[in-house]
Amino acid sequence: MPYCPRCGKEVSEKENFCPDCGANLKPERPAERTRVEKLEKAEKAEKAEKAEKAEKTEKKEISPAAPLVAGVILVFIGVAAYLAIAGILGLQTVWPYLILVLGLAIIIAAVYAAVTASRRHPRP
User: Fold this and answer.
1) What is the pTM assigned to this prediction?
2) For the purposes of burial, counting CB atoms within 10 Å of the CB of 11, is it exposed (0-12), middle (13-18) or buried (19 or more)?
3) How many other C-beta atoms are found inside a 10 Å radius of the C-beta of residue 19?
4) What is the tens place of the pLDDT at every residue in 54-71?
5) In which band, very low, low, confident or very high, does the pLDDT at 100 lie, cut at 50, 70 and 90?
6) Spans of all domains in the chain
7) What pLDDT is stored for residue 54 in this prediction?
8) For residue 76, with 0-12 CB atoms within 10 Å meaning exposed, 13-18 middle and 19 or more buried, which class applies?
9) Residue (of 55, 72, 58) closest to 112 by Cα position
């Protein structure tokens, strides 16, 4: 038969508490606590990662300059293809104009992005 760790009185193995002093005869398992603590830490870390990902996606804003550039290029290609089919303009003369329009669209997009950035984050 075991004895109570606090008062030393003899107790049966079936008892959870000492009938004399009330001491806990079945101590809690510290391994379970650390396991629970590890799970809680893992959950907290996971929540922090999710919050960080949400922050990153909130900050990503697509500039309207990129779709604008793509639209201008597509319109130009469509017009050039129509003029080539109609026989008004040859395909060989379209490429320099395409490169010119593409360059101008990129310059306009860069200026727009710079102006937008300076409005959002003015210098002190």
Assistant:
1) 0.37
2) buried
3) 11
4) 665 555 556 666 777 778
5) confident
6) 65-120
7) 63
8) middle
9) 72
